[in-house]
Amino acid sequence: MQLLKEKIINEGIALSEEVLKVDSFLNHQIDPVLMAEMGKEFARYFNNKGKKITRVLTIESSGIAIGLTTALELGVPLVFARKKKSLTMSNDIFVAKVYSFTKQESNDITVSKRFLSSDDHVLVIDDFLAHGEAALGLASVVEQSGASVAGIGIVIEKSFQAGAEKLKEAGYDVHSLARIKGMQKGKVEFMEEELVK
Amino acid sequence: MQLLKEKIINEGIALSEEVLKVDSFLNHQIDPVLMAEMGKEFARYFNNKGKKITRVLTIESSGIAIGLTTALELGVPLVFARKKKSLTMSNDIFVAKVYSFTKQESNDITVSKRFLSSDDHVLVIDDFLAHGEAALGLASVVEQSGASVAGIGIVIEKSFQAGAEKLKEAGYDVHSLARIKGMQKGKVEFMEEELVK
């Protein structure tokens, strides 16, 4: 998505070969117009694929804004999973363990059983895809409920890390709005664009 | 706001005299259409007051959705403050201490100095107003930057707790979309509506 790539080039800061800082428009300060446009793009892509999405699922905090604009465009509710340090044992929630490579710790993500049912077709949305842990955790929550994963929408995919490949191998339809081939301090290189179907 | 009150009556669950559960549309599952309408109402109210808002400030996680629709309607960036358990000493951030009566602990909220400047007129947005701690913390962050607080927009005000009074005494223009006079288990009573200017 051209608008997003331009934002990354103009405002993103590659701090190292692995860390891209985008806090001026994505995960601390938020550009609402960009969010709305990205929500439209996710809706367009998955509608074109004939997916009958009934809910959008994301994870707090950075997924909420892009989840919301996508849900608004699709006309369905948004659910955001909560992160907890320790396991809350409860019969009322779905739980998945998510390992953070950045923080080197596991967190549980939880969703109330009231907000996912076996009839649902769920679009999973997240801001970043690196090792795929968060997206796989969200997909696991969906599958625990008996619902189906209609697809996975990602704002920024770090294509040089393992997540995208893992998700595709697991059979998910992944749509990433910007795909980064590699980074060096101060420099971001994007994957060549395939024609989007 | 009638739409919100109906949601609270139909889907909100008063668990006690103090706790109102609204996780089916506000802070776990989110109703995007309601969020969009509430964002329009905040923009309408504060535009009518002649406030030239340049930024919206809220707090993760539950403030992000309503902050985003408000910022989208006003055509300005959204900034969300982060919650931290312990103080991150840094010259790059504004910090305020926020006491949670529910959790009986203090957290720091932080905002990068890059995203607030002395020229800004900032609309503070939050989902709940009870004792006023979060809103006062956000206002403190705004004032540390030299910016002005253009107003405070609240989705649900528990008018029987001290927060609303505290904010008004401090001179802030507070606009709450639903004002709850009192609760009993299973029952919510709203304040009588003044005519909104």
Strand order of the largest sheet of chain A: 6-7-5-4-8-9-10-11
- What is the 3D form of chain A? globular
Number of helices of chain A: 5
Order of helices and strands of chain A: HEEEHEHEEEEHEHEE
What is the largest interface, and how many residues per chain?
A: A-B, 29 and 29 residues
Descriptive key words:
alpha/beta; homodimer; about 200 residues
Q: Would you kindly provide a written description of the structure presented here, covering whatever features stand out?
A:
The structure is a homodimer of 197-residue chains. Chain A has 197 residues and is α/β, with parallel strands linked by helices. Chain A has five helices and eleven strands. The longest helix of chain A is centred in the first third of the chain and has 17 residues, at 32-48. The first copy, chain A, is globular and about 45 Å long. The relative contact order of chain A is 0.18. Chain A binds chain B through residues 23-24, 28-33, 35-36, 60-61, 64-65, 68-69, 71-72, 75-80, 82, 111-112, 114-115, and chain B through 23-24, 28-33, 35-36, 60-61, 64-65, 68-69, 71-72, 75-80, 82, 111-112, 114-115.
In short:
Chain A is an alpha/beta fold and 197 residues long.
Write the layout of secondary structure elements.
Two copies of one chain form a homodimer.
Chain A: H1 2-11, E1 13-14, E2 20-21, E3 29-30, H2 32-48, E4 55-59, H3 64-74, E5 78-84, E6 93-100, E7 105-112, E8 121-129, H4 133-144, E9 148-158, H5 163-169, E10 174-184, E11 187-190
Parallel strand pairs in A: 4-5, 4-8, 8-9, 9-10
Antiparallel strand pairs in A: 1-2, 5-7, 6-7, 10-11
Helix pairs in contact in A: 2-3
